[in-house]
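Archive entry. Fields below.
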Amino acid sequence: MAKSPYLYFEPDRLARLANISLVARQVVEGFISGLHRSPHRGFSVEFSEHREYTPGDDLRHLDWVAWGRTDRYYIKQYEQETNLRAYILLDVSGSMNYRYGAPLTKLQYGSYLTACLAYLMARQQDVVGLVAFDEQTRLHLPPASTPAHLDRVFTGLEKLTPGKRTAIADTFHELADRIAKRGLIIIISDLYDEPAEVLRALQHFCYKKHQLIVFHLFDPAELELPFKRITNFVDLESGEKLQVDPRLLRSAYQDEVTAFVERYRKECSDRNIEYVLTRTDTPYDLMLLDYLARRRRLVRR
Amino acid sequence: MNLPFTFHNWYLVLGVLAAGIPVLLHLLSAVRAPEMFFPTLRFLKISMDKTARRRRLEHWLLLLVRALLLALLALGTAELIWRPARGFLAGRRFAAAVVLDNSYSMGVRTGGLRRLDRARREAAELLGGEDQPVLAELLLTNATAAVGPESQPAAGPPQLRADLAVLRQRLAKAHLAPGVAPMAERVAQAARLLKATSVTRRAIYVFSDMQRISFQNLRQIPELKEANIPLMLVDCSRKVPVNVAVVDLEIAGERIVDRPLTFTATLLNSSETDKVVNVWLQLDGRAIGQPIRKVLRRAGEPGARAVVRFSHRFTTGGMHTGKVAIAEDDDLPVDNARRFSLYIADRVRAVLVRPAASAGGARDPAAVVQLALDPYAGMPRPWPIRLTTTTAERLDAAALRGAQVVVLADVPSFSPAQAQLLEQFVRRGGTAVFFLGPSVRPENYNDLFVQRIADYGGLLPGRIGKAVGQVGLTDEAVTAVLNLRHPYLADLYKSASDYPQVLVQRYFKLPAGKPGAEAVISAPTGEPIVSAKDFGRGRVVLVATTADAEWNTLSTTALFLPMLTRICLEAGAKLGAEHTYPAGKRVIIRPRGKLPARPAVQVTLPDGRIEPAGPVSPRGEFTFAKTATPGLYRWQVVGASPDASGLRGAFATNLDGIESDLSVVTPQAVAAALSAGPVLAGKSLQEVNDKAAALAAGTNLWAHLVALVILLLVVEAVVANRFRRGAVPVPAHLNPRLAA
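PREDICTED_STRUCTURE:
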């Protein structure tokens, strides 16, 4: 396979995902025929199922093969495919520029993940947009599915640099207002903002009938606090310093992080938001493969 | 400071400093904390707030526990011993033999206190403290009846007694006494005493300065081993003393007026550093000449011992006293001087008896002898011989009165009375010199001086035979054989080849090899030419040839004068004497002159006390035993006139020079020499008792184990802060597994 000209686009990794599609859990409206279930059942391209003929049905949809087999009359039903409209919201605040226990910073990981998702959706003729934000929007690429758009997405990712402070809730509220049509909102962030505010913002998206997937990114060190000696920790965004003996705090810290994660997990679950706790020491392609496979099983039920 | 506790291993108390290690590590860790960027401090802050109190408590508690643990372990290793009672045998019946070293080295003063005083105090604590023995005995190393009250004589034979008050009194009166402390004897004596008792617990306490010479004869003591009696050595010395001593003094030369005497003093430095001293000779209270400056190396080095020499001629006879002393003071002043008392004899009175018909002149043998005996012919020159002459006819008691030597030059014969006079003269200590010349009648000599005198084989060294040889030196003259080892001829020249040759032509034959006779000059045939013998308290010299050049060349050689002079000085030196004795020895006082009826002698001791001497003996001698204190003792016959010089005198006593060797022996060496039960040593009674108590508790290994634990804990603390690489367990809820 030829080498990718893009930093965050790795075709060899995406080969794992060749047969996996990002299937929307909910049916959304769209204008490009795609793979996504439309809420409207009708006579469209893809055969879905049979039903018995009743007088008055259109005989064009009679399934003559089934009549030949069963000597009974059946009408074919079709699922109307619609296109998926997706937004990938990538957090580029200062806290995303952290790496300790993994080979990539959270921002790099998120960028790879973004590129991968964008490609998948474009491949299945979904339209995908990209918004990079910290305390304000740094990059806004409206959804499209053309190769040129994909190029803009990949190039845009490469130019992203870690920003300043985090203001997730405000940004989400603003985006929720701006995005008119309902679609799929994929959030890739460490969500280091006030949880109540962030959840309220996510609720805003839900109110707008969007489907949300939250990839909650953590470096393993943020979860485990593996440090062995007294350390002066410096906040990546504010520069504030704090001297801590991690050995004495580890248990309490993990409890706090757990509570933080669990709160998001529960609240997202309550709001029907897909929540994926993502460790940056897990290869993004494997993580995605696992996630999409689970998601597909859930959708096909 | 009397603390209510002690440690078995004081040096391990330093381990308490290990308690500071956790604190130090914590401080170092905090100070050198690295900086690390972190996405958010949110959770850290919350965690810190929530755990602040607990962490603080844990932190300080952990620090305290670790520090306390290390400190307690260190104290445990050092074996803290709490002492509710003071003796290791507290509350138990035990018997003790106390050996107190009261040799003169215990007089060393440090910190204002003598070693003996320190020893007495420690011993008193044992005999009068809370935990006294039920039975005890006090043995002084230097206590003999002959020494006198300065060092307490024992009240009867040693025995363990219950009345310790008696022992305490004796202890309080114990004084320094001369002599090397016979520690081996005393310890053996103590062991025998204790072995015989039925009290099962017993110990020997030795209070000493551990002077090496005191312990030099230490050997295995069976009683110690059999009864397993511990030997408790209380070292009462505090520091190596500064001491330079005069350990020996030799006085060489004839103790006669106008004769040179050489005073050779040996110095010994026992100090840890080199010392420079100035040494004086004092005589009769006056310093003689200039002091001699000497540099002595420190103890143990070559040069720690040195010799100084003084020379002096006494111009007056009689009793003279003096000392060789070091001008500088030190920790043991008693050995800084060695005293002496000398009786210097006046000039030797010699009487020359010549034949009546002697002509004088160079051919007159008597004249030649006279010239040799009085070369200055009465001129005022320092000459030790005062010569008078007489003739053979006038030889009587008056002529010999006061004389020490009589020289009979070619006297033809003697009357029986004269022969008896001469016999008595010699018997009482005089010296008679017979020159046999041409006038001599041998048969008269043989009859009176050989045959009629049975004692000692006669007065003469042998019967006089015929004269042989021709008068006038010819080729037949024989070369005499000189006995260069004889005192009359010895050391006159550097080597034998320097001695002049003596030719003898004519001489009277004397028998060779007579018992008691000493050949001074002999003929080649072995026949004596000059021989001497002792007779009674005196001496007889027989010259078988005359002082005539026709008979021999003896009188013309440089041997003649010194030979005669030595014969006379030998006689005179008997009067001169040295009255110097070792301290502590019994002295015999022999007054000269006529004693009054019921004579008594008083002795003034060096400290000014006056003590009577013992009763007079049939021989007119007195004994005096209270000589423990080194110094000058003056005696006089009670009631004697001041003019009676023979009835007053002086003597000096000095310490044995070996007592000034202050080198010490180690307890380990003592233990090795005894090869017996436990030997415990310490600087105080308390210390040895504590060691004994610890020993009684059995072998304690846990101190070593605890020391190892402390080491391991320190290593753990270091490793925990520096090298721990343990895996941090990840909670499952923070580590989602991939389903695929």
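CURATOR_NOTE: The two ends of chain B are 80 Å apart (CA to CA).
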